[in-house]
Write a structure and sequence with these properties.
Blueprint (H helix, E strand, L loop, with lengths): L6 E5 L8 E3 L3 E8 L2 E6 L11 E3 H9 L1 E13 L4 E12 L7 E3 L8 E6 L2 E3 L7 E6 L2 E8 L9 E10 L7 E2 L23 E10 L5 E5 L2 E7 L2 E7 L4 E2 L5 E5 L3 E8 L2 E8 L5 H18 L9 E6 L1 E2 L1 E4 L2 E5 L3 H6 L16 H14 L31 H14 L2 H15 L6 H12 L4 H9 L19 E2 L4 H4 L4
Parallel strand pairs: 6-15, 22-23, 23-26
Antiparallel strand pairs: 1-2, 1-5, 3-4, 6-7, 7-13, 8-12, 9-10, 9-13, 11-12, 14-20, 15-18, 15-19, 16-20, 17-18, 21-22, 24-27, 25-26
Helix pairs in contact: 4-5
The structure holds zinc ion.
Length: 490
């Protein structure tokens, strides 16, 4: 079944630091009875004024503007100078109805960007008729607006050369995405930070240093020697979301590395010397990878899995890769299926990849519980479809929503069958929450739409994100190396 038209209502609450967004759905589910079509409408709570309707796709088109197909990036890391020199070649087309392109690039500024060239024309970052730096009301994302009209049917080429400060203190260079905070790889190369903007990434890494370096990352990695210096070309080989591209470039003398094939998956694990046991990680994967293959499907990334093990903290999933502690390893590897290959359309829809992940864990332990009858929240609608980062209620409240669905569908095994069905049918086809509701209906015959509106699109509690609250940094990845390495870089 194709999704019925969904309309998003916006309501600006002046007392709130964020907008309160109420997404209500005109239940256009045509109930065909006796030859006539009836429509039901969800009742809007009286105290909330009804704002103007906005279509989700139109909003994404107008805010994101471009659709990137290919990115060819060169990144040269100079650890002794704490500098990163970049050159990005971006092939993009305009989204429907859009003419003036923009791109996300957080360190952008006249002191960082050396050159911008759009379709063969040099643009001057200091000339307001060429370039405008913009922020959006609906998101914390910053953009560079390129003040030239681009046609809808053309492939456009944007080249940006830049030099930015980069230091993490330990002579290494790595992707540091935090999808709860909404920080993607636009922190180091121009991109569109949105889960459903999928593009092929080809990134060439090089280091200017006397030290030897080692590299792991998402996709195919080719090591080439160039004048006694190594370069690594990372090729995702397929379109992926930019924020799911991982790399780890680290001094060789500081790491242990081991590669094994587990259940047909090529697994490469790197960690700091004298920190975490690589064997323990392999041991976890020895049972985890076969379980996920049996329950959900063949491991999604042909190139296998790259893991950088940290001493503590949480983890972050990437396409075919993760930077994670041992304790978060299973969670991050589960995301290879839901999060990195079955992809949410927007960050706010990302609630489901965390919710499904946590539900799988809780239900296996027999500790999952459904939401109570009257549960309502605005996990999804507390924000716009173009905002970055997601609401961290996704983990626990979200897992309970999934348990409510799973138990009504008939229990854990049936819901896992559904996950396998989703995985085989919608891999790399980003979908939003309403499409997920449709998929559940198609699979089980049970319509959760009305309840999901209560569970995810209602409720008075205002959206909160980790980035807006203090002391909620428990989701962060902790890259601190062990003492013996730390002292080397002091
Ligand atoms: Zn997660």
């Amino acid at each position: 079944m194709k999704s019925s038209l969904r309309i998003i209502f916006f309501n600006k609450n002046k007392n709130s630091i964020e907008y309160i967004f109420i997404l209500l759905v005109l239940l256009t589910l045509p109930l065909i009875t006796g030859g006539c079509v009836t429509e039901e409408a969800i009742t809007i709570p009286e105290e909330i004024p009804q704002p103007d309707p906005v279509d989700e796709n139109d909003l994404m088109d107008s805010i994101l503007r471009i659709d990137i197909q290919n990115m060819d990036v060169k990144l040269e890391y100079i650890p002794d100078e704490d500098v990163l020199i970049g050159e990005s070649i971006i092939e993009f087309s305009m989204r429907p109805g859009q003419m003036i392109p923009l791109i996300h690039f957080d360190p952008a500024g006249s002191d960082t960007i050396g050159n911008i060239n759009l379709n063969g024309e040099d643009l001057d970052i200091n000339d307001p008729s060429d370039i405008k730096m913009i922020t959006f009301e609906e998101t914390t994302q910053e953009g560079i607006e390129l003040l030239r009209e681009c046609g809808n049917d053309e492939v456009n080429i944007l080249i940006i050369k830049y030099r930015i400060g980069y230091s993490n203190g330990y002579g290494s260079f790595y992707s540091d995405v935090n999808d709860i905070y909404g920080v993607g790889n636009e922190a180091v190369f121009p991109s569109i930070n949105c889960p459903s903007d999928l593009s092929t990434h080809r990134i060439t890494f090089s280091v200017v240093s006397d030290r030897s370096y080692s590299f792991i990352g998402s996709g195919k990695v080719t090591e080439i020697e160039n004048n006694n210096n190594l370069k690594w070309i990372l090729d995702t080989e397929r379109e992926v979301a930019s924020y799911t591209v991982m790399w780890m470039l680290v001094p060789e003398e500081d790491i242990d590395f081991e590669e094994r094939v587990i259940d047909g998956v090529d697994v490469r694990i790197m960690t700091y010397k004298e920190s975490v046991s690589i064997d323990s990680a392999f041991e976890i994967l020895e049972s985890w990878l076969p379980e996920l293959r049996t329950n959900i499907g063949v491991f999604p990334m042909e190139r296998g899995l790259d893991v950088f093990l940290t001493q503590g903290g949480g983890g972050m999933e990437y396409f075919g890769a993760t930077i994670t502690s041992l304790s978060a390893l299973e969670h991050e590897v589960f995301h290879m299926y839901f999060g990195c290959s079955v992809v949410a359309k927007t960050y706010r829809d990302s609630w489901w990849d965390e919710a499904i992940n946590m539900w799988y864990e809780y239900s296996a332990a027999g500790s999952s519980s459904p939401v109570i009858q009257s549960f309502s929240s605005n996990i999804v609608s507390g924000r716009t479809p173009v905002s970055v980062g997601f609401d961290d209620r996704a983990y626990n409240d979200g897992a309970r929503v999934i348990e409510s669905i799973a138990s009504e569908m008939g229990g854990r095994e049936i819901f896992i069958d559904f996950l396998s069905h989703i995985y085989s049918n919608y891999i790399f086809s980003p979908f939003n929450t309403f499409e997920l509701i449709d998929y559940i209906l198609e699979f089980s015959g049970i319509d959760f739409e009305e309840r999901m509106i209560n569970w995810l699109y209602s409720g008075a509690r205002v959206y909160y994100s980790a980035s807006e609250t203090n002391g909620r940094d428990y989701h962060k990845v902790d890259m601190t190396p062990p003492e013996n390495i730390r002292i080397k870089y002091q």
